[in-house]
Amino acid sequence: MKVVTASFLLFTFAAFLVGTHGKYDNESHKLILIRGRRGFRHRTGSWLAASPANQRRCGAKNLYTRRPVHPKTSTPGCPVDSPTSAPTPPPIETATNSPEGSPTAALQETDYGPYPAGPYISVQQNSERITLPEPATVLLSIASNTACPHTGADIVYWDDASTWGASGIPDTANQDVAVPSGSRVVIRSTIPVVLGVVTVPAGSNLIIGSDVNGIDIHVAGMEVAGRLLVGSETCRLANPVTITLHGSRPRDAVTNVPSDSYKGIHVTGVLSLHGKRYFHTWSRLAKTAEAGLSVLMLQNPVNWEAGQEVVIVTSAIKDSIEYHQNEVRTVRAVHTSPPSGVGAIVYLTEPVDYSHIANSNYQVEVGLLTRTVKVQGSESDSEPTDPNPLSCTHLLGSPFAEVDEDVEGVELYCMGQTNLLGRYPIHFHMLGDFPDCYVKDSSIHRSYYRCVSLHGTHYTTTTENVAYDVCGYCYYLEDGVEQFNTLSYNLAAHIHSIGPVPWGGGQTTDIFQQSTTLTLPADVTASGFYITNIHNHIIGNAASGGWAGFAFPNLAEAIGAHQGNEAFRPATVTGLTLDGNTVHSTGWWWNHAGAFYFGGSLYYNGDKLEYNPGRSFSFERDDCHTCKNLWSGQMEVIGFESHDNSLAIEALSSGLWINHLLAVCRTGKSLGLPEGATNNRPLEGSGFFWYDTGQEHIITQSTFRNCGFRSDNYNQYNSSATRGCDDSDMSKACYSESSMFGFLTHSDEFTPKIMQGTRDITFDNCGRRFKFTINKLETVSGQGQNWLDMDGSVSGLNDPTIIASGLELAKDWWGVDNQVVYEPQAPLSTYCRNDGSGLNCSPVGYMRHLGHKFSPTLNAAVNNGLPVTANPDVVSMIGGFGWLLTLNRGAPRQLVLWDLEVDPGSVLLLSIPYPAGTTFNI
């Protein structure tokens, strides 16, 4: 196949530019010589003959390709209890190449009931291009607990009158209680009244023991300067312990902040909570959980128990308060001897209402919510009372500890106080280096403000936790200085923004300012993970829902308590580990929001924080599906899978290398769209877009599958009846403009130069390969657009190729010989604009190659050459007889050349005609 790109020219080449610099001031010189050797090479540079004051911003599109000398054969509000307005999707079709098999396959049997037959998606098969990391296997010992604090020496009991002396056992409602100084007091049974604030002074211990009937404690708050102990690392409590916190939210809570212990546990001493170990705490499905079934096939073995609650995470592309398909169900039984390829079979007490996908491309998660140790806000005074429940404001939950925390196997429910700084379910507060602090195998659900906050704290561990139904950012690095922490194998699902959600299709959004209803302006883009400092280990996590899955905002300086630290700038630190993370069902509102979003700026405007969500390192083995795209820049992406997305990946800053990308634009599964959403929010199903704004992008060893619209207009590379995608079924369709590659060439301000290259690219059952996005007038960026196809795998020529602009006014500039191939798939037109108005990009002159082939006076088939505008950048091949520059107003009186990118061994001859007798000063 000899066809190549859209309105571009492709050239076989043997060398690539290196870069030299020259500067000349000419009053009277006829020729400028830059020595090198002959032969067409790629060259870019800048020239200046007049002030660019009248410069226009424009856009463009069209491609040509150059055939190689020896062509080869081408290779082709917050939380809600249940879904409210989400329509039940149609039955999910099973792709013929998916190993999960038919959803109507015969059911098998265990002692607990039937389960769907295989094939199944095992842990080893859950991704194609990358290997998702797994937590280390845990051997769940059946041995007796040891070193339990409630059985230690010198203990006294809460319900023993001798413990309290003359004051007697605390048994009065709302009574404030102080644990006796220097004592070790054990609570061994339920306290029958709601107490006031319980204080544990320094040197004292309050220990909650174990009772087969469970222990319930109701308080208004706790102030812990000593030690609050529930179990230990060697004494994981299997019997239930529940601490319930009571209190209504004051109307002026944000401006008149309540005491630290108000409806919370404030710790300046030691907190050590250890519930029973459950493993795994979450798993992916091994088989699609069809609507109407009450059985889940999990990839991992689990020791979950009957009566516990689980969340089955949505597989729909949109997840929000008013539309979601997450479901909370109760476990009826667990079968631990499942068929091969399955870790466990979980039976539910009632069927699921929605289908939850598990196929060879991606599988959604199931998380365990119940734990034996539970801290919660009271149901009577914690639920939302805000008249607009979608705003996530004016809610009350419970903050948690702030100092030495060892938390594992704990359930945190109805926690967090919205917009109250520091009142989060878990808060590591200004601890400095503290490697002994951790939050492990716990759950946080129905949180009104965040999940786990790391604030001025380093070397901590947050691992194997499940978070669901959360207002604001969930796993959260607060000031941008937090480093060397590990966030691993955590699940974040159903995350809600606070305040108005930034949305739209442009590259900018509204700017949001700190206020009493938005303490952190960035919460308008709340996401599962908020990473203000990449010098941490982010491994094996999963995110669903939210404005994005993982947000990496740009902080030019530290904020909060660390503001003014001029020696530390979060945006300049290097990354430690970003590996094996997955995202889905996110990025719905803004067209440029990404599953992994590297962008947005958080900064101070005066004494108030301000957040700009719009555009303004290396991560490995990551995956997103049913999400809009990945927005990135200035990084390496080593192993990335993208499934059922609008755009696989998007980069709007310089310096991006993608290696081992797998973009499956459509898998054949329903996207779970809200009714009517496809009419006004087209989800393209495209691969990657090149930009024209001075960026450098490289893509290698990558595959595009089922991408590009299927149309007879775009069958030059593949004419299969099943190639790409179409719009016949809107539940899983792609946009009529979808393509593998696209070009943004809208501006007269930018000249692309050499900024994009590819090698070893594979197209698997794809439709349209190239497109341009703006269709109006010609521009500088459109005329200069070019692309280095190192091995010809994109062009189909299978030789080193340059893909370049084929615009009408640029075709003779790039068409340097008769081996050029025209590519019809991206008919390039452009859009010139100045403050939004369509304007012609008026040339101030023309640049053309010297020689008979390019001379309009000798060859009537060619034009005057490449239009040169107020933008001084010019890019093209060098060699032949050189370039000829002619200006409409005559030869320049002063000429400056700079940023010349020419191989030192090459020759570029630049000619400018001057009147006879002109003299020059150099």
Strand residue content: 25-35%
Question: Terminal Cα separation, in Å?
Answer: 51 Å
Q: Low-confidence spans: pLDDT under 50, at least 5 residues?
A: 1-105, 387-395, 628-632, 827-837
Q: Helix share of residues?
A: under 10%
Structural class: mainly beta
* Count of DSSP-assigned helices: 4
Main sheet: strands, sense, barrel: 22 strands, mixed
Number of strands: 64
Radius of gyration from the alpha-carbon trace, in angstroms: 32 Å
The residue-averaged pLDDT reads: 80
Oligomeric form of this entry? single chain
Overall outline: elongated
Secondary structure: elements and pairs:
Elements: E1 8-12, E2 31-34, E3 41-48, E4 63-66, E5 107-110, E6 113-116, E7 156-157, E8 177-178, E9 184-187, E10 194-200, E11 205-208, E12 215-224, E13 227-230, E14 241-245, E15 265-267, E16 270-274, E17 282-284, E18 295-298, E19 309-312, E20 327-335, E21 344-348, E22 365-368, E23 373-377, H1 379-382, E24 404-408, E25 410-413, E26 426-433, E27 438-440, E28 443-447, E29 452-458, E30 461-463, E31 466-471, E32 475-477, E33 486-488, E34 491-496, E35 512-513, E36 529-530, E37 537-539, E38 542-544, E39 550-554, E40 577-579, E41 582-586, E42 596-605, E43 608-612, E44 618-627, E45 631-632, E46 635-643, E47 647-651, E48 656-664, H2 677-680, E49 686-690, E50 697-705, E51 741-743, E52 756-764, E53 770-772, H3 780-784, E54 786-789, E55 801-805, H4 811-814, E56 820-822, E57 833-834, E58 837-838, E59 845-849, E60 866-868, E61 873-878, E62 883-887, E63 896-901, E64 908-911
Parallel strand pairs: 7-9, 8-10, 9-11, 10-12, 11-13, 12-14, 12-15, 13-16, 14-23, 16-24, 23-25, 24-27, 25-28, 26-29, 27-30, 28-31, 29-32, 30-33, 31-34, 32-36, 33-37, 34-38, 36-39, 37-40, 38-41, 39-42, 41-44, 44-46, 45-47, 46-48, 47-49, 48-50, 49-51, 50-52, 51-53, 52-54, 62-64
Antiparallel strand pairs: 1-55, 2-64, 3-61, 3-63, 4-55, 4-56, 5-6, 17-22, 18-21, 19-20, 19-22, 20-21, 35-43, 42-43, 54-55, 57-58, 59-60, 59-62
Protein name: G8 domain-containing protein
Region (Disordered): 63-106
Pfam family, one: CEMIP_beta-hel
